[in-house]
Amino acid sequence: MKALRAQNHTAYQPRRTDRPLAGLTICFDLDGTLVHTAPDLVRVTNDVIAQEGLSETNYRLAARAVGFGSRRLLSDAFVRAGHSVSEDRLSELQRMFLLRYADDIAQCSKPYPGVRDTLDTLAHLGAELTVCTNKPGWLARPLLEALRMTHHFSRIVGGDEAPRSKPDPRHVFMAAGHRNTSRIVMVGDASPDMGAAHNAGVLSVLVTYGYSYTPQIRQRADVRLRDFRSLTPALIERFAA
User: Fold this and answer.
1) How confident is the model at residue 241 (pLDDT cuts 50, 70, 90)?
2) Can you tell me the distance from the alpha carbon of 204 to that of 197, in angstroms, rounded to the nearest whole number?
3) Is the pLDDT reported for residue 99 higher than 60?
4) I want to staple 149 with a disulfide (CB 3.0 to 4.6 A). Which of 109, 144, 145, 202 is the partner?
């Protein structure tokens, strides 16, 4: 499938009767795609590793591992600090992390530029919008609620709610609510998202501003976007006919 590069966004003003994306389901990753959550996740990581007497971890390196979950954030921080803990202690600290994060989940997190308006436009054009995130559902929903974004999505499926989380294709199909692969798009920033899209046989859209641990150039994607606002014209070009 030939990759498209739609890196420059242009304003699209739909007529009220235009619904060129009707029947299309767009599944969005959450962290690093819709919402810039790294500031809160690294903040809590630093709070927790301080229990082991450690200073703040490297923000840039920590942010790259956001998509791998809280346990990975902590274990990587310990490796960078040359510090070791037992598996039992790591599990205890992970529970502490989850409680602290849930208690103040959106202190610093915010949607990326253009996300709110673009979601409104895509819905106006007839697309169904869902969230397909490896973040546990019991954290994904409060985050979206705190940011007043829940109303955009017909389904929010966390990694703990699917048979297997991304890159397993069943996570994508559960979020989409159907298996018509020609009418599903997976939008994400990292290898689990692109892997899930390829495994499911659906269109993959990579946003290059997120938290990818793997270099962006090494990831296979049908469409690459530098700006979330480029998503509308990219999908119009592919699906409007």
Assistant:
1) low
2) 5
3) yes
4) 144
Which residue range forms the structural domain that includes residue 217? 4-37+109-239
Q: What's residue 5's pLDDT?
A: 45
CA 30 to each of CA 7, 12, 126, 127, 211: distance values in angstroms, whole numbers, following the listed order: 20, 24, 21, 18, 11
Q: Give the residue-averaged pLDDT of 193-206.
A: 97
What DSSP string describes 9-43? -------TT--TTTT-EEEE--BTTTEE-HHHHHH
Whether 225 and 192 share a structural domain: yes
Q: How far apart (Å, rounded) are the C-alpha atoms in residues 146 and 40?
A: 13
Residues 80 and 175 in one domain: no
Residues marked as catalytic: 29
- Is the domain of 158 the same as that of 214? yes
Distance CA 111, CA 201 (A): 28
- Phi, psi (rounded to 5 degrees) for 131: -115, 130
Which pLDDT band holds residue 39 (cuts at 50, 70, 90)? very high
Residues 6+ apart with CB under 8 A from 198: 167, 204, 220
Strand order in the sheet with 223-225: 4-5, 223-225, 203-207, 184-188, 25-28, 128-132, 155-157
- How many domains does the structure of the chain reveal? 2
71 with 159, same domain: the answer is no
